[in-house]
Design a protein that fits this description.
This is Transcriptional regulator. InterPro entries: Lambda_DNA-bd_dom_sf. The chain has a single domain, classed as 434 Repressor (Amino-terminal Domain) (Orthogonal Bundle), CATH 1.10.260. It is elongated and about 50 Å long. The protein has 78 residues and is an all-alpha fold. The mean pLDDT is 93. The protein starts with 13 loop residues before the first helix and ends in a 5-residue tail after the last helix. Helices cover 56% and strands 0% of the residues.
Length: 78
């Protein structure tokens, strides 16, 4: 029996999501670090694609940018 599974999320798009929202919010890394409580280094690493961040980080960013996780991460499913 064949089961049609949904596609895997494209986690490489997290960098794009992060950079788009940071630019739309007009926040520097310093501004975003202050607003979110996350370290500037963590934010830079996400922005450059050196890391994807963990669930806690994305939950904090979701709250900081006033978006649900579904809204924030919808494009990784496209």
């Amino acid at each position: 029996m064949k089961t049609d599974l949904p596609p895997d999320p494209d986690l490489t798009r997290l960098r794009e999501v992060f950079n788009r929202l940071r630019h739309e919010s007009r926040q520097s890394y310093d501004d975003l670090a202050q607003a979110s409580g996350l370290s500037r280094r963590t934010l830079i690493n996400i922005g450059t694609g050196a890391t994807q961040g963990d669930l806690r980080t994305w939950l904090i960013l979701s709250r900081t940018w006033g978006q649900s996780m579904d809204e924030l991460l919808a494009s990784v499913w496209e």
